[in-house]
Amino acid sequence: MEYDNFCHYSSRLLMAEVLGEVYVEMSKLESANRRFMFTRDLLHKHKMLIPTLDIDIEYDHPIMSTSLRQNGNALFNAKFYAESAKIYTESLTGSNPSTEHYALALANRSAAYLHMGQYELCLKDVRCAMCSNYPSKLAYKLYERAGQAERKLDLVERAKESYAVCLTRLDEADMSAENKRKFRAAVEIAATECEELLTAERKRTTKTHRVEHLVGGRNENIPALSAFVELKMSEDMGRGVFATCHINPGDIVAIDEPYIGGPIRDVCHYNGCLKLEIAPFCCPKCLLVYYCNKDCMDNDYKDGHHLECPIIYFIRSTPGNTRMNELAMKWFLIDYLKMGLKKYCSIVNNFSESKVDPMTRGFDEIGQYKSDNFLTAYSLDNSENNISIDVLFFFNCIAVDMLHYLILSDFKIPNLYMGSVGASLVHILTILDLNCRKLNINAPSVSFRRCRQLTLTTALTLYPTISLFNHSCDPNIKRSGEISDRIRVMKAIQPIPKGTQLYCTYGIIFKEHDKESRQKLCNDRFYFKCYCQPCIKNWPTFNCIPHHLNALNVLNHSMADIVAFKCLQFMEFTKSVDPKDHFQHLNYLYSFIKLLYTNVKRPFVLYEECLQMIGNAHSISTNAISVCEHP
Fold first, then answer.
1. CB 156 within 8 A of CB 201
2. What residues pair up with 232 in beta bridges, in sequence order?
């Protein structure tokens, strides 16, 4: 199954010989609230819920941890840094994270990583040690080490800040006046060098921030969309976005912010940030979520992490997709704090009981569709009515577990609201499952230094307005700008005539998959049949697309000679211009794609190559990562 530990709940009920009965009974329940309460009662009855949030972990005796750390110190002093790092790790596994033993082992391992050139790992351990029970009189060491690692990673501004804190903490150091004087002088020299580097960088570079604007301005009813588009119903695809004016390649058609987002990797946990960060700060209580700075940490605590913190370990141990489960809880807590429990339950109950017009779904009472509105996000397409009974039961079990963790942490939910909250968690899980986990083509990501074409998703994000765009295996819009940003800009990559529907891709494109594979993917993952032109006309995959112009694929024969000449020019362009410089030639690429659009029958290799160049040139990746193994 595509969900981790999918049989966690069903196997217990199978052993009790009641699973078939459970599925039959659950399928009879029409109300989401009743399905949740049925599942909750069932898990209570079969003693499948944990009795306490206390984690019964037996740590080795502190003497053993200290002994291991001292062995690591001996290896470190002998300059066997990799071996010492392994011993420090063993010391950590035998220490309680709240103890000084643990903090000392972390700090010592950070020193080993620094000498090994593993600067990111060094910084992570330094940040964790800073948040733990590390002795104040030694704190200056951590900040000086952080400064060294940050300089090596070209984080000069941060290194300067670390050195400054180091100098303030030096007063607490237990060392002779002479040693303190020498140490202070060395740190001041390093700080001065950082300032010189920053000054030189400011003189050498002048940052210009390009402001992106929606073509035609903002849409009157959907502010994240262009004024040159509108929502309409279509027979095959339901609600979709259509052009009311001609849209050119490069025109911005949407600028959307996620309603909710959560990190997959080293990304700030705060919903309003989600910035990729090298060695971020961890939460000092749970040690499981990270932030780029203290402001983001404080904002996230206000948004609900103070309620999530005591239970996040258990949420990450729950079956399914752990990051999606965590994001569902984060969503609920943010809106619970905004609205209060009574209003929250009233809104979700009204939504579940009302019949919403497919055309106006997600719009508020004054006819606005806004990505920061709870009901706009809550009314997005979800898989709840399409998934099989075993998967629906699985999601209900996850919601029961998560709500149970909250209650064990002293979160008060009156019985009156239990079914509503639980059913809303199930609904949120199904929205995230369809729109975030599976449809993550527009999520923040980073590229690999070794291969710019490979990207790695760094966060799960829910974009309510971008979700209005239907899928095509031949999209005419694509994400643009810095690919790691949480704000997502969508640009046209093909000419879009008035009256034409705007399409993005759900990660399925005709050049890479044949029709049968595409249709299966659309059906199995997104529960629809694709009616795009490549599927209707059964376009071939890239290797079988025509390479040459001929009488069959030239639409306008009076332009045949001009098109042929421009195609030769384009082939020369592809040979002479490095792909990383394509963004400097976007106007040329736009003009060529427009020429082919009106004069050549698709599919045609040069058209597809130009389209790929435009899409890549629109996307910028300044946050590249390298692939390295941990020692």
1. yes
2. 240
Match 């969309």 to its residue by tokens: 225
Please list, in sequence order, all residues whose beta carbon lies within 8 angstroms of the beta carbon of residue 79, skipping any fewer than 6 positions away.
115
Nearest alpha carbon to residue 477 among 462, 464, 463, 495: 495
d(CA 209, CA 432): 33
Q: Tell me if 271 sits within 8 A of 460, measured CB to CB.
A: no
* pLDDT of residue 326 exceeding 60: yes
Is the Cβ–Cβ distance between 626 and 524 less than 8 Å? no
Distance CA 402, CA 392 (A): 16
Of 35, 52, 47, the closest CA to residue 394 belongs to: 35
Contact predicate 263/458, CB 8 Å: yes
Residue with tokens 């004054």: 366
CA distance 331 to 337: 10
- Paired tokens of 554: 């030239």
Q: What are phi and psi of 420, to 5 degrees?
A: -65, -45
For residue 316, how far is the Cα from the chain centroid?
16
pTM of the shown model: 0.84
pLDDT in tens, 446-501: 654 433 445 667 788 999 999 999 999 999 999 988 777 889 999 999 999 999 99
Q: Which residue has the tokens 């362009």?
A: 573
Q: What is the largest CA-CA distance in the chain?
A: 90
What are the tens digits of pLDDT across the range 501-512?
999 999 899 999
- On the CB side of 379, CA atoms within 13 Å amount to 26
Alpha helices in 32-155 (DSSP H): 32-45, 62-77, 81-93, 100-116, 119-130, 139-152
Which residue has tokens 């990797």?
A: 265
Distance CA 560, CA 71 (A): 78
Is the Cβ–Cβ distance between 468 and 256 less than 8 Å?
Answer: no
Strands (E) across 290-403 are located at 290-291
Question: Which phi-psi region, left, alpha or beta, contains residue 362 (left: φ > 0; alpha: ψ -120 to 50)?
Answer: left
Task: Answer whether residue 441 shows pLDDT above 90.
Answer: no
* Residue 550 half-sphere exposure toward CB, CA atoms < 13 A: 6
> Pairing between strand 619-620 and 445-448?
unpaired
User: Which DSSP state fits 199?
Assistant: H
Distance CA 457, CA 305 (A): 23
Token pair listed for 586: 């976007």
Q: How far apart are CA 85 and CA 125, in angstroms?
A: 11
Half-sphere exposure of 449 (CA within 13 A, CB side): 6
Q: Are 237 and 384 in contact (CB under 8 A)?
A: no
Report the alpha-carbon distance of residue 470 to residue 53 in Å, rounded. Answer: 43
Residue 171's CB: how many other CB atoms inside 10 A? 10
Distances in Å between the Cα of 154 and the Cα atoms of 120, 197, 402 are 12, 10, 41
Q: With beta carbons less than 8 A apart as the criterion, state whether 245 and 474 touch.
A: no
Gap between the Cα atoms of 21 and 198, Å rounded: 69
Residue with tokens 């966690």: 8
Those residues whose C-beta lies under 8 Å from the C-beta of residue 629, and which sit 6 or more positions away, are none
Q: Are strands 503-504 and 470-471 parallel, antiparallel or unpaired?
A: parallel
Q: What is the DSSP string of 57-69?
A: --PPPHHHHHHHH
Give the least confident one: 269-273, 407-411, 448-452.
448-452
Express the helix, strand and coil content of the chain in percent, nearest 5 each.
Answer: 50, 10, 35
Q: How far apart are CA 88 and CA 104, in angstroms?
A: 9
Question: What pLDDT is stored for residue 76 in this prediction?
Answer: 95
